[in-house]
Amino acid sequence: MGTAAATVADEALVRFSGTSRTELNPVLAGIPWLDGFELRAGVDAVTGGITGSALEKTPVDEWRTKTSSEQYTFIQSQRDLSNEIEIGASGRYNIEGVTVSASVEYLTRVHYSELAVTLIARFESHCVDYDRLAEARLTDRARRLLESDPERFRYAYGDYFVAGGRRASRFTAVYTCTSRTVDKMQEFKSRIGASMPEVFSAEGSARFKETARSSDVDISTHVFMEGTDGDYPGGGQWTPDKVIEALAWFKQHQRGVYLTALLCHYNTIEPSYPRTVDVAPQAFAELRRLYLSAWDVRAQYASCPPHYKEQLSGEFRTFTSRLEASKDDLVTDVKLRGDMQQACDLLGARLKAVYDRLEAYLRVTQAVRDEPRKDEAIEEGTGRQSWLYGIRDWVKSDAVTIHRNDSRYEEKWQIGWREATIGFSNSKALVVGWEVVSDWGDGTNGQWWKTTEQNLLRDQAYVHVKSQYDRGCAWTLHVYYVDAVDYQF
What is the reported pTM? Predict the structure, then answer.
């Protein structure tokens, strides 16, 4: 081996040095078929990189028997998304996609919150087993390298080889269901119940659409196809009805491509080759957490309201591009892994804050209909009286900061009426609640009415108060508001 190659290999030895070791599994099944995979290719468990092949070319035993299945999954929480990632982007060690490949692109359309759920409907036709190498033998050159220098063998050929591939065709439809109110979303979910809507049938799709319509829930639909003999001629703006049409076309044009891989460790054919790497198991666990967090951020960002999506676009692109570029070093570089997790958590917290504020905003939007009409007089009754419209606090999230402004009018009795317009105006504010308080509460304080068409979700709020004839009065107006710049919905 030349000096340059030896230097690289020596650097690799230093990079993989450590006191803790991980014993790799001998066989990994169900690994997503990554770009660059081919039968016999080598795979590095630490970097996820695809290496040259150490195997001789031998025949491949192919399977012809096929089966098909339909699957429906609701995504309502981070746990649900994590489970779906295990299905769609599952992997072991660092052998998994941090890039958005065709097989996992559908995950970017998944969104969940108190105002949204996602239904994933999947049809898959696949061979019952993997096409496998009839025999796996090292080339003479690879064998000599393994015998003389196992570490350089690993650097050249990795830990695993692609021993098989399962051919399949997959049709995935993603239905993102959103509501303007939490109550309506809860109603929708309770009406769906425990049974998954079988939206791939005309009857099931019709029931699903009707349930959404009657619960004031909007459905956004996207379709992803893998393993066809051509491009679908339809498409455009997807609807639940078009999904059924596309699935019928898909079933007629299945071709089958490798979608999952079977990886075998070189130890399975050369027992002298160790199945351990100089990486602590904790490092792989931390890496898994980072990847799950990254997919969660991707899902939240994809459905972020336009203003804030644009606002966070630079930070999101920086994070995702750095994550993909540093994939090879994430397992072995503790600081890099920590920095990336910190950046991911920070971006996730900012996205969560946006959704928390959106939830509060939509709750106020719902309350607008409860405001009294302009100039509709409301008489004070006996006892201390108050009238609240909108919200005055939001304990569910620290991201929602509500300020208060108080206006008060009090006058002693005189002949005639005592009256005034009181209120609040601030061009940088967004009113989320207002409350009129009768400070006397003895039944003689008079009346009040709203002088504007709408106070909520405006930058001002006014009411007019008026005493009884030859009486004084005392009224207070509390206006609750947030910084408008944080509520660009």
Answer: 0.81
> Which residues contact residue 381 at a Cβ distance below 8 angstroms, ignoring those fewer than 6 apart?
443
241's tokens: 């009805």
The single-letter DSSP state of residue 417 is -
For residues 288-327, b (16+ Cβ closer than 10 Å) or e, as one string? bebbbbbbbbbbbbebbeeebeeebeeebeebbeebeeeb
Q: Are 166 and 260 in contact (CB under 8 A)?
A: yes
Segment holding 84, helix H or strand E: helix 78-88
Q: Are 356 and 397 in contact (CB under 8 A)?
A: yes
Model confidence at 15, in pLDDT bands (50, 70, 90)? very low
Place of tokens 């591939």: 165
Phi, psi of 31, deg, nearest 5: -75, 130
Residue 483 parent element (H or E): strand 473-483
Q: What are the extents of the domains in the chain?
A: 22-279, 280-369, 371-486
Asked whether the beta carbons of 327 and 290 are under 8 A apart, the reply is no
DSSP-assigned states of every residue in 368-432: GGGSPPTT--EE--BS-EEEEEE-S--TT-TT---EEEEEEEEE---SS--EEEEEEE-TTEEEE
Nearest to 268 by CA among 129, 165, 130, 138: 138
pLDDT digits (tens, 9 = 90+) for 390-424: 999 999 999 999 999 999 999 998 899 999 999 99
Find out whether 168 and 227 touch, Cβ atoms under 8 Å. Answer: yes
Within a 10 A sphere around the Cβ of 141, how many other Cβ atoms? 10
Binned at pLDDT 50, 70 and 90, residue 381 comes out as confident
Q: 189-193 long-range contacts, Cβ below 8 Å, gap at least 24?
A: 189/76, 189/117, 191/215, 192/74
> Residues for the chain: how many in total?
489
- Those residues with Cβ within 8 angstroms of residue 384's Cβ, 6 or more apart along the chain or in another chain: 437, 438, 439, 441
Write out pLDDT tens, residues 247-262.
999 999 999 999 999 9
For tokens 């029931």, name the residue.
207
